[in-house]
Amino acid sequence: MEHAAHAHHHEGHAHHHAPATTWSMAAQATLHCLTGCAIGEVLGMVIGTAFGWGNLPTMILAIVLAFFFGYSLTLRGVLKAGVDFGTAFKVALAADTLSIAVMELIDNGVILVWPSAMDATLSDALFWISLVISLVIAFVVTTPVNKWTISRGKGHAVVHQYHH
């Protein structure tokens, strides 16, 4: 089934049609995004907490690092395909910006409204429970967004042409 969707994707380029988009494709793109976001979120929170920073600077660092790691994972894959850095960077921006932005908005929004989550420290179960649940909710909300962008030939559909 994956090969059929992939073959249809290439066929779609020849006829200028959007690729057939499955929920599996959207979930894979979202999981890829979630990986980079989770690395950045956790690292940002660990650094901010370790330095005794307040909530706002810690959250800003976590968001910046989520974008950095989200883009980096895509960059790595596209660069492996032999694409120059400038092109790979543009592909990463096009593929991931909306996905990461939605994921970060949902993830951080859940943490902000969760009672006491912003005050939890790394040694508190609440810190880890609220983080995991916020990322799961962000995944559930972002997957349909990615399905929509891929079906329009945008988002992670841009990256798929470099995965042969």
N to C succession of SSEs: HHHHHH
The outline comes out as: globular
The count of DSSP E runs of length 2 or more, i.e. the number of strands, is: 0
Q: What is the mean pLDDT?
A: 84
Q: Report the portion of residues in β strands.
A: under 5%
Indicate the percent of residues in helices. over 70%
Number of helices: 6
Entry summary:
Helix 3 runs antiparallel to helix 4 (85-113). Helix content is 79%, strand content 0%.
Give a verbal description of the structure.
It is globular and about 45 Å long. Helix content is 79%, strand content 0%. By secondary structure, it is an all-alpha fold. The protein has helices at residues 2-15, 23-50, 55-80, 85-113, 125-151, 156-160. It has 6 helices and no strands.
SSE topology sketch:
Layout: H1 2-15, H2 23-50, H3 55-80, H4 85-113, H5 125-151, H6 156-160
Relevant terms:
164 residues; mainly alpha; 6 helices; 0% strand; globular
